[in-house]
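Q: Got a minute? One more chain.
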Amino acid sequence: MALGLPWAWALLGGAVTVAVACGALALERARGVGPCLAALAAGALLALSVGAAVFVPWVDAQKGLGRFLTESARKVPRDRPVFVYRPDETARGAIPFYGGRLATPVYALDGLAPAAEDRYVYVIDKHADLRLLRELDPLHPEVVAALERPRTRSIHLLRLPGTPR
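A: Always. Here it is, folded:
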């Protein structure tokens, strides 16, 4: 399975679609346009169904964050706030949806100033060099959970240790 795609299913779907198209052409010559259009519609429906069955799960596996966010949210104590560093529209929607709690957006390091208690911060980084994650290095974060995908986006849940007063 190159690229993780079930290519056998994709090729089988393509072959069946071509066979239906050839059958539709034969029907058009033998019986006219009506049966031909019906066969083409059936072939198009088959192609769309196979395409959805093959490619949608593959795309979800490459870009989906749901499973990670659900599992990582369980690692944050319920009495602790959750932050998200420099969020994009994906982070704004996915963290509350899958994590089950709101995340306060933070756009600069001073928004994560030392506090008495631990703070938990999500970082969703689209950069291969993880530059957003590296911006938090001065705060000495502990990585609680990570999902690294350099070609799409990586996500980290960090714990920033509290400072006793």
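A: The chain has a mean pLDDT of 80.
Q: Perfect, thanks.
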